[in-house]
TrEMBL record:
<feature type="transmembrane region" description="Helical">
    <location>
        <begin position="194"/>
        <end position="213"/>
    </location>
</feature>
<feature type="transmembrane region" description="Helical">
    <location>
        <begin position="220"/>
        <end position="239"/>
    </location>
</feature>
<protein>
    <recommendedName>
        <fullName>DUF6594 domain-containing protein</fullName>
    </recommendedName>
</protein>
<keyword id="KW-1133">Transmembrane helix</keyword>
<feature type="domain" description="DUF6594">
    <location>
        <begin position="136"/>
        <end position="257"/>
    </location>
</feature>
<dbReference type="Pfam" id="PF20237">
    <property type="entry name" value="DUF6594"/>
</dbReference>
<dbReference type="InterPro" id="IPR046529">
    <property type="entry name" value="DUF6594"/>
</dbReference>
<keyword id="KW-0472">Membrane</keyword>
<feature type="transmembrane region" description="Helical">
    <location>
        <begin position="245"/>
        <end position="264"/>
    </location>
</feature>
<keyword id="KW-0812">Transmembrane</keyword>
Amino acid sequence: MNTEHFLGAQVPLDFKDPKPWVLSRHIYNLVRRVEGDPDKKAQYVRKQSGIATCRLRMSFAELQSMRLRELQCKLVKSMVDMSVDPRTPVAWEADLKEYIQAVRDFDFIVQCSQRANDPFEVSAERVTDDEIMQRAAWIRNAWQTPEEYQNLAPTSPLRTGFWSSSWHSERRPIGGTRRENTQRSWYTAFAHRLLFSAYGGAFLLVPMWIMVLHNTRDTCLITTTASVVVFGFVLAWEMEKAPEVLAATLAYAAVLVVFVGLAIEEGASEGASRFSVR
C-alpha cells in the first residue's frame, strides 16, 4: 500500500471501525531502520544466509498501543452516547473489561523491555528475526529501494552489555536460552552488588580522608552536608521506596555526624593544649 497516499487521504475516524484511523496514527512506528553497522562476523553470517542489507526493527508493543487506542475510541463513543441520551443502549462493559486487560498486558510488555532479550522486539540484530523480516519485506516488495529504506524512522541498537556487540552471529531462540539468561542475570546482579559496595566504601572513606587531612569545623560541616546530599540522591535513584531511602540517609548522616563530633572535639583539645603550652 502507498503509505503517503493512505495518510494524505486524511482517514476519517469511524467509531464503528476505528482500525484504519488508528493505523494512520501509528503506521510510521510499525517498522523502523536500525542505525549502525554489524561487525564482520555478523556481516559474513548474513551474507552466507542471503539476508539483504536493509536492517529493520519491529516492536509488538506498538501493536498493543494500537489495540489500546482502538478500545479507547469505543469507550469514548459509548460515554458520549450515554451522556447525550441516557436511553441509548450501549454495551460498554465488555469494552471496558477488554481495555483493563489490555493495560495489564501493556504493563507486562513494559516489564519485558528490561530483559536482555526482549521477546516483543523483532530486530535485524538477531539472525533469525532478520531472516523473517527480510522474507516478509521481499514478498511485499517493501523498502527495496534506498529511498524507501532511508524514509524509515531511525532507531538505536538494542541494549546490550558493555563489551558485547548487539549484532548476533548465531541463531538463538526467542528470548534467549535459559542458561544464557541465568548467567546474564547472575552477572548483572553481581555487578550491581559490587557497584553498591563501591558506593558504600567511597561514601564513608572519602569524607573521612577529607575531614582527617583538613580537620577544621567548616571543612567537616561542608563535607558532611555535601556527602549526605549526594548519598540521598544516589539512593533515590536506585531505590523505589521512600521510607527506605529516608532510613538509609538518616543512618549515613548519623555516622558522619558522630565522626564530625569526634573530629571537632579532637581539634578543640589540640587547640587547648597549644594554648596551655604558651
